[in-house]
Amino acid sequence: MEDQGSPQFSGECTEKMGVDEMLRRYAGEFGPWQLRHFMLTSIAWALNAFHTIVVVFTDHQPAWRCSSTGGACPATMCALPPGSWEWAGGRRTSTVAEWGLVCKAKYKVGMAQSAFFAGSMLGAGIFGHLSDSFLGRKGTLTLVCAMNATFGFLTSLSPSLYIYALLRFLTGLSTGGVGLSAFVLTTEPIGPAKRGAIATSTFYFFSIGTILLSIFSLYFHHSWRSLYIFSSLPSLLFLLLILPFISESPRWYLVRQKTSNAMKVMQKIAKSNGKHIPDGVSLTLDGDISTKSSSILDVLRNPVTRARLLLLITINLLNSIAYYGLILNVMNVKTNIYLNVMLNGVAEMPAYVLTAAALKWYGRKPLTVGTMVFSGVCCGVGSLMEGDGWMGIVRMVCGVLGLFASTMGFDLVFVYTAELFPTVVRNAAVGSVTQGGQTGAVVAPLVVAMGGRWAFVVFAVCEVVGGVMALYLPETLNQPLYDTMVGLEKGEVEKRDKGAQEGDGC
């Protein structure tokens, strides 16, 4: 068999190598080109936050007051006769006020929120596969941003709750493809030494989007419909003004057998980074792709990747129940909702900083296990705190710390998944793991509806169980990013052989 990593001679000297090696030796692992590409592509995560978090403001229960002057106003309007109370800001302030989603109809609020996450779950699988196939990473990102803008604008015109829930489902469908396409497109042109730290930094933009949305929501608090128009406009601007300046992944070009296109991107990277790729140097895959392995079915057929995928799906599902649950739980906190959401966004940023720094020194496995177990412990302590006063403050602190650690776990699962699967199925794998997370997000509003200590109990159990399951994943620190299933299988054999030799004292 021909060694694709060695110089080849066919009339002229041609040195063939993989993307990682070319980035290390000639193009640069992380320079000006990758920084620009990272900044532009990661803006998509802010759009993701706009479409995901907007329901906290549009579906909240606004202030109300008794319209009659007789007697004291009770804590809830459910026992009052119709016409004896009214919404303080009018019926247009939220979907709850406009469609009367209170008292016995309160569960319908969770139904609309779950519809969004159900759409995200389905979209992650659909667009994960399209991103690995003919459409590509950039093509998929273009499509889902166009869908996001369209469905977001249409949501502002919803004539009824059921049309609203349907449009939220469709918005979730496209949103499910935004994050995973942007994440893989951002990380694939980065060298292995910098990939982990930079990959976690993409999530800063989700927090920035959350903070910006909470600030601008103050100016649209009078109309939930206006807020949907505002939150959808950035997707249209991203589509028209930013996407044309983003490059397709050289790894996707390579596995689609478009080597000349892949080399053009690598040449641009090298030129922008002040480096040079010598003549006669070309890209090659780390294995054969004649079997056209580009489906999630190929992942499930292989026992190694199948075990990894099932573990990661379950871990992300459990972590997402706690992560989204802790975010949505601010709707149950009787304080300023805009300030609470903003503080949640701010609280997530140190988690990203700490994750990026820790990934330089520690492996993915101990960090994933540690963060999820820590989050579980915090939620467990929070479940023991009942009542107001200092116990209420402790419960709030436990929730913030739990979200902090859960955010780190959310980060790490994305990085882990991208590194555990080869390029030909990477987006499909990330999409499937994202589906697991969105399944957890569908469950989260129902857990939040439980209220009180039991929501914290569920969050605690999910995080601890997920952390224990992460013990069974392999470490990926300083390991190569494979392009094909064959390359991954070869790498696994080499690691087993090396481990056996070290065990024998060789």
TrEMBL record:
Localization per Swiss-Prot or TrEMBL: Membrane
Ranges that cross the membrane: 38-58, 114-131, 161-185, 197-220, 226-246, 309-331, 337-359, 390-416, 428-448, 454-473
Gene3D superfamilies, per database record: MFS general substrate transporter like domains
GO cellular component: a single term: membrane
All copies of domain Major facilitator superfamily (MFS) profile, residue ranges: 37-478
Keywords (A to Z) from UniProt: Membrane, Phosphate transport, Symport, Transmembrane, Transmembrane helix, Transport
GO molecular function, one term: symporter activity
A biological process from GO: phosphate ion transport
Pfam family of the protein (one): Sugar_tr
Keyword Ion transport attached: no
Superkingdom, natural source: Eukaryota
Membrane topology: Multi-pass membrane protein
PANTHER family referenced in this protein's UniProt entry, alphabetically: SOLUTE CARRIER FAMILY 22 MEMBER
Family, as annotated: Belongs to the major facilitator superfamily. Phosphate:H(+) symporter (TC 2.A.1.9) family.
Protein name per UniProt: H(+)/Pi cotransporter
The organism of origin for this protein: Dioscorea zingiberensis
Phylogenetic placement of the source organism: Eukaryota, Viridiplantae, Streptophyta, Embryophyta, Tracheophyta
